[in-house]
Write a structure and sequence with these properties.
The chain contains ten helices and ten strands. The chain is an alpha/beta fold and about 280 residues long. It has a ten-stranded mixed beta sheet, with helices on both faces. The two termini are about 15 Å apart.
Length: about 280
């Protein structure tokens, strides 16, 4: 069964871009939408007061109807960081999120909300700090261990619908262990697709898939700190979407695209970030 979209908002105006992007994605990929509104810190004395969630829902419904998107609405009370992961577990969803408008002291005490979401939610997450449409350029980060396959699959579908150009990126971090494979990758970082290494095979396969779908695709490699190089490439290339994969486990922090790395990229993102955990078929 193909996944629906679960778009979440707490009424903060910064979540509108994620709703707008989710509506576009639902149209492009022919998906149903569940719009989840989270009413936070509900005061019984203010039960009749106008809540900002009402305005967001009214705009969203108008947008969905204009685009012909099949949708349903749901409202739950509680903190978004608890409500959204709980709702996500109830179905087969791609989760679409935007900034929740947390104050600085909240972030210092509890951490960024997107980090918590990526740790708690097993399904793919599309984080939209701001919508960049039309979708023309997609950056897919390839780690070489296959953890990016789920994100890559979704990205390819999006690219096919929008005819977006794809760049496959691999980052070669500083070598701290003397493994033959690491030495080969480091020595041939400018022609990785010609190497018989895990990342070489992953890049070739991704190129074949993209080209078989009639998409324009190319390969890039960078050397240095993984987070810094991904963010630099995303900014330099002016991409409309960055896609990353991760292990199914949040404990494998040594891996290239573990959730903490993805969250760090999302923290400073200027475009939507698609993150999907590794899922063994």
């Amino acid at each position: 069964m193909k996944p629906d979209l679960l778009i979440a908002t707490n009424g903060f105006k910064g979540t509108w871009d994620s709703i707008e992007y989710g509506a576009w994605l639902a149209t492009a990929l022919d998906k149903k939408v569940v719009l989840l509104g989270v009413t936070e810190n509900l005061n019984p004395a203010a039960i009749d007061d106008h809540h900002p969630l009402e305005d967001v829902f009214a705009r969203a419904v108008e947008l969905f109807q204009q685009k012909g998107v099949e949708y349903s609405l749901e409202v739950q009370n509680g903190n978004a960081e608890e409500v959204i992961p709980r709702k996500a577990k109830e179905g087969n969803y791609i989760i679409v999120l935007g900034p929740l408008g947390r104050p600085q002291f909240w972030r210092v005490l509890a951490g960024r909300s997107i980090r918590h979401m990526m740790e708690e939610i097993a399904q793919p997450i599309l984080y939209v700090p701001r919508a960049k449409l039309p979708l023309k350029k997609i950056l897919i980060c390839i780690g070489g261990l296959g953890y990016e396959v789920t994100a890559e699959h979704i990205a390819m579908q999006m690219a096919m619908k929008s005819r977006a150009e794809i760049t496959l990126l691999h980052i070669i971090p500083p070598i701290d262990m003397n493994y033959p494979t690491s030495k080969t990758v480091s020595a041939h970082w400018q022609n990785l697709t010609e190497t018989d290494t895990p990342v070489g095979r992953s890049l070739r396969l991704a190129l074949e898939v993209a080209k078989s779908d009639g998409l324009t695709a190319n390969v890039k490699a960078r050397q240095g700190n993984v987070v810094e190089e991904i963010m630099f490439e995303a900014k330099e290339g002016n991409y409309d979407l960055v896609c990353m994969g991760s292990l199914y486990s949040t404990n494998a922090l040594r891996q290239l695209y573990a959730p903490n790395v993805t969250a760090e990229v999302a923290d400073g993102a200027a475009c939507p970030i698609l993150s999907a955990r590794f899922k063994k078929e």
